[in-house]
Amino acid sequence: MDKFNPGWFVIYTKPRHEKKIVRQLEDIQISHYLPVVKKLRTWSDRKKYIDSPLFPSYVFVRLENMQNYFRSLEIDGVLHYLRTGKQIATVSENLINNLKMAVSQAPNDIEVSSEYICPGTILYIREGPFVGFCCEVIQHKGKQKILVRIELIQRNILLDLPAESLIPVAMVQNN
């Protein structure tokens, strides 16, 4: 890591340590984002909605300098930063903003999958929380869903989007 470029990065955590890490990042004043969705948990005596991480074991962190990088690695529960080759993998500001918008607008319509899903029809999202992204139309659990792949963390976001929000990729490339 010769030269540090500020931006968003992804920490890989121990299982179920995401919220603890977020609290410690707040204590040392490092910007972060942990997308959460409400899930219904059932116990033998009760049911309760809890905030659950959208991407278990991943926390997005905005680093401004190398000092913050090393300070964040010292947090209990942090395993490592995601890398592409020898470099720490960066996440675009656009992806973080789109995740924030999607989670705030339609938290119940988002489903995350780590399983491999065969490619379907490729479309371009022209409006909504993931505007500008390419997506695929797939069949999932008997329903047509829109799939947005996030390659860096090897996860797929499945959502319902109106057909008016989508156009064929060929139309975008011709413009």
Q: What Rg is obtained from the alpha carbons, in whole angstroms?
A: 18 Å
Helical stretch tally: 4
Largest sheet, order of strands side by side?
10-14-13-12-11-15
Q: Give the quaternary arrangement of the chains.
A: single chain
Describe the model.
The chain is α+β, with helices and mostly antiparallel strands. The protein folds into 2 domains: 7-91, 2-Layer Sandwich (Alpha-Beta Plaits); 107-174, SH3 type barrels (Roll). It contains 4 helices and 15 strands. A hairpin with a 2-residue loop joins strand 12 and strand 13 (143-150). The longest helix is centred in the middle third of the chain and has 13 residues, at 93-105.
Concise summary:
This protein has helices spanning 18-27, 66-73, 93-105, 169-174; strands at residues 7-13, 31-33, 36-42, 47-53, 58-63, 78-81, 83-84, 87-88, 90-91, 111-113, 121-125, 134-140, 143-150, 155-159, 166-168. It has 175 residues and is of the alpha+beta class.
List keywords for this structure.
15 strands, 5-stranded antiparallel sheet, single chain, 175 residues, 4 helices, alpha+beta, Alpha-Beta Plaits, 6-stranded antiparallel sheet, SH3 type barrels
